[in-house]
Design a protein that fits this description.
13 helices, Rossmann fold, alpha/beta, seven-stranded parallel beta sheet, 40% helix, 2 domains
Length: 362
């Protein structure tokens, strides 16, 4: 079976990381599968890594999401590759694939929906456009039940085509580098993700500004349009001596192993890869109860759930773990057990492989 993955780029991100995990695992469990990747804009960090591992990764060199020349390139690429299946991720790759599918007949087309919301859903006329676009895919995979529900509310006609398969993550050995939370040093909080309003880092800084206990530090990994605004907020809240902006990190697992708690105060999400990765390393998570997060985190069992945007609740939870960090150890172990049982990449790759076989043999 020849499968092509299509995505905007393979830069650092959750969807990009999920593709990396998937193609590596499929290579192990289904060696007869041939998996290629093609991007619209640039190969990116994850793409370069996969190339070094022997995977075929290409770029269509689109100049923008309005560059219609990419349709011709994609059509020719799919024809030349003689693919059985094309698996598409994210917008605008979604639209590029839908248009291209009108000109090539052989492969089946699958799309993965990663988010519960996008800007197109603000406008009613996009419902008709999206109906035409999504109709080009034989199957739509949602990364969580909540993502599936929100998509079907937008496009009810997809009910017979949507199924839920979550993202999967490797579950590494913990080794001796994972420290036990509750040591005498400061409680280390970690955030990792895009520095954009959706991720809620401003809410985290506001919550930390009112804590009575100063025995903590916050590490912020990632970059984005809010970076300078958030730095200024840290100064305004008198937190600049407690907050370190790490920038984009390619050694994030090492930072996770050094942290006591991961914090994800998002305003909206699908099912963030970074939360799964943290839990796989035994790192407990405080996260907003949005998207599919509650499908993974059970409050006070393997992490903490916070009402989205509720700074007071977030502050209360942070105060508790800073005063009593010893509670985090058991939460971290339960978090890892949850990932091993339901979100390990080997488990998810088997589900995806079964889907591919079913779709191609329809």
């Amino acid at each position: 079976m020849r499968t092509l993955y299509l995505i905007n780029s393979m830069n650092v991100g959750g969807a990009e990381s999920s593709i990396c995990n998937l193609v590596r695992s499929l290579k192990e469990i289904e060696p007869q599968f041939e998996n290629d990747l093609v991007t619209l804009y640039q190969i990116g960090y994850f793409g370069e890594r996969l190339k070094q591992e022997g995977f075929s990764v290409y770029c269509l060199e689109a100049h923008s999401k309005y560059d219609l020349r990419v349709i011709c390139r994609l059509v020719q690429f799919v024809r030349n590759g003689n693919y059985d299946l094309v698996h598409v991720h994210l917008f605008p790759a979604l639209y590029a694939a839908a248009l291209s599918s009108c000109f090539v007949c052989r492969p089946k087309w699958i799309y993965t929906e990663h988010n519960v919301w996008n800007r197109r859903r603000r406008y009613g006329f996009f419902r008709l456009i999206d109906r035409l676009v999504y109709s080009r895919f034989s199957t739509v995979v949602a990364v969580s039940r909540v993502v599936a529900k929100s998509l079907l509310e937008w496009l009810p006609f997809l009910r017979s085509r949507v199924l839920t398969i979550p993202n999967g993550v490797p579950v590494p050995e913990l080794g001796s580098t994972r420290h036990e939370p509750g040591s005498s040093r400061k409680v280390r909080l970690l955030f990792a993700g895009r520095l954009e309003p959706a991720k809620g880092v401003d809410l985290l800084l506001e919550a930390l500004s009112g804590l009575s206990d100063s025995n903590f530090e916050l590490l912020i990994a990632g970059d984005g349009g809010q970076r300078e605004t958030l730095k200024q907020l840290a100064i305004n809240y008198k937190l600049s001596h407690k907050v370190t902006f790490l920038g984009v990190r390619h050694d994030l697992p090492d930072w996770m192993r050094s942290a006591d708690c991961f914090v994800a105060p998002s305003r909206w999400e699908g099912l963030p890869m970074v939360i799964l990765e943290a839990m796989a390393l035994g790192l407990p998570v405080i996260a907003s109860d949005v998207g599919g997060i509650s499908e993974v985190i059970e409050h006070e069992v393997n992490g903490y759930l916070i009402p989205s945007g509720d700074v007071g609740f977030l502050k209360q939870q942070l105060q508790e773990i800073i005063e009593k960090p010893q509670v985090l150890g058991a939460l971290g172990r339960q978090a890892r057990d949850k990932i091993v049982a339901e979100y390990a990449i080997q488990v998810i790759a088997q589900q995806v492989a079964s889907l591919y076989k079913s779709v191609v043999n329809e």
